[in-house]
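= Protein in question =
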Amino acid sequence: MTRTHPIKLYLAALAIFLALDMLWLLVLARNFYQQQIGQYMRPDPNLYAAGAFYLLFIAGLLYFAILPGAHAPLRAALRGAFFGLLTYATYDLTNLATMRDWPLLLTVVDLLWGSTLCALVAGATAWLGSRMEAALPATRL
C-alpha cells in the first residue's frame, strides 16, 4: 500500500483523465463522433451527468488499477488498460447489441481509446504517486 494519500492520487488521476479526454473529445475525435453518432448527440450536454461519470469513473480506476499498481507504474498501466477495456466495452457493446445502426467502427475506436486512456492515466498517476512517496521523509516503525 502506498503512503501517498489516496485523495492526492484521485485528484491527480482526475486531472490527467480530464485533460486527455477533453483533448480527445473536443479536438482529436470531435468530428469522428459527430459523423458516427451525431443523430444521438445532445446539442447541450448534461454537465451534471458528465461530472458524475468522471467522479465515479476515476474512483473505479483508482480502486482497480492505480492503488494495486501503486509501486509499479507498468502494472498500474496494464490494470488500467484492462479496466478501460471492460468499462468502455460495457457501454459500446451494449449499444451495439441494442441500438439500431450503432456503428461498429465507433465501438472499435472507443474500446481502443478507453483502454489507452485508462492505461495512460493509471500509469502516470502511479508514477506520480511513487515520486510523491519518494519525496516523503522516511518514517520509522
Remarks:
- The mean pLDDT is 93.
- The two ends are 15 Å apart (CA to CA).
- The chain has five helices and no strands.
